[in-house]
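Sample entry copied in:
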Amino acid sequence: MNDRSDPGTVRAARRLKADTVTLAHGGGGKAMRDLVEDVFTSVFEPADMEDQARLADAAMREEGARLAFTTDSFVVDPVEFPGGDIGKIAVCGTVNDLAVGGAKPLWLSAAFIIEEGVEVALLRRIAASMRAAADEAGVRIVTGDTKVVGRGSADKLFVTTSGVGVIPAGRDLAARNVRPGDVAIVNGVLGDHGAAILAVRGDMALTVEIESDCQPLNALMEAVIAAAPSVRCARDATRGGLASALNEIADAAGVGIEIEETTLPLRAEVKGVCEILGLDPLYLANEGTLVLFVPPEEAEAALAAMRATPAGRDAVTIGKAVDKHPRTVVMQTLFGGGRIVDMLVGEQLPRIC
């Protein structure tokens, strides 16, 4: 798959006759070409089928601009869940990894490892979901790959995405920049993705209805940077949740971080799931939630900018960086005491993203 310089050159997609994927669809011949062209390139709309994407953007030519590049693999179980699917997570996760570093995401690649026997209809839904998420984020999927493995060698579908973006001159968002007094802000409720996955698996016979928060955050980040240009850093709170993101920032900056339990935005349903199962919502994965740090004089401007976007309308201040207890995160509890919030040890939930 490659760059779409002329959509009119896209070949008419063949229609697959098979209802499920077979090993022949990974063999490099006509069956594989039919799968790629029918399911993927007909949706992503590359210009041709060369082995590389050829890319150009005016932002790359600006003096002082830097390229940002990230990659991630996604193995969520189940692959479809309330609020999203593995394809939407793959696109949003990669876009967000670029955005929290101050980059403007431009292009993505997508590689698929498909288990023999997977329904072609499922692949069509995943591809359509990825295209919709890419359109929402204003990025393009320009190149990719497919591999088919035997039954039992994968669990339906694994997706690896890489992303390229441009960091404009003058931007330097990094955890090392956080200083004592800087304010911590999250853009919305915590733990929805982890709770949604847990509920839909059905292992615990939970009847609660929770949707994943999966969404792109690049528009929100651009709005915040415009309103609060001294933003220190941002992290998306994915695997390991808010607790892990805060610990990574505290460690990199050499500061302490204090958060207030009373300010943490949690749905009653998520609290209930955590109480029943003995889980800590601070460690639940998110797929559309970030935490950022700004100087105190820009905190209100950052909050207002976030709340003006769909992805940030529930934004709240949750704490601040301090010069006490360096490299340690402490939560002031509802009962007035403080407890250390450490990095996640082991795993709370497997195959979460």
Q: What stands out?
A: The first helix runs from residue 30 to 44.
